[in-house]
Write a structure and sequence with these properties.
three-stranded antiparallel beta sheet, alpha+beta, 7% strand, elongated, 85 residues
Length: 85
């Protein structure tokens, strides 16, 4: 049985696996999947330091630079998981 990260991960799986009848929301499915995917926390990617900065990370969804320990990416809204980073 799949271990879910959170309720958004579980909902995303239900929508994309065919468990639910989605015929009423088919026109909105791409937007729903995209929004739910952003609520599943991902680890920021470490990149080489930029001159004058001790740490530098980027969002794995949009590749934009991040302030260390921001809860969400300021650009795309991806939920970030800083644990063990």
């Amino acid at each position: 049985m799949k271990q879910y990260i959170n309720e958004y991960d579980e909902a995303l799986n239900a929508l994309t696996s065919g468990i639910l009848d989605t015929s009423d929301i088919d026109p909105y499915m791409d937007a729903i999947v995209k929004a739910l995917s952003k609520q599943i926390p991902v680890k920021p990617e470490s990149t080489p330091p930029v001159a004058g900065m001790k740490y530098w990370y980027r969002c794995p969804s949009c590749y934009m630079g991040l302030d260390r320990y921001s809860q969400y990416c300021d650009v795309c809204g991806q939920l970030l998981d800083w644990e063990d980073v």
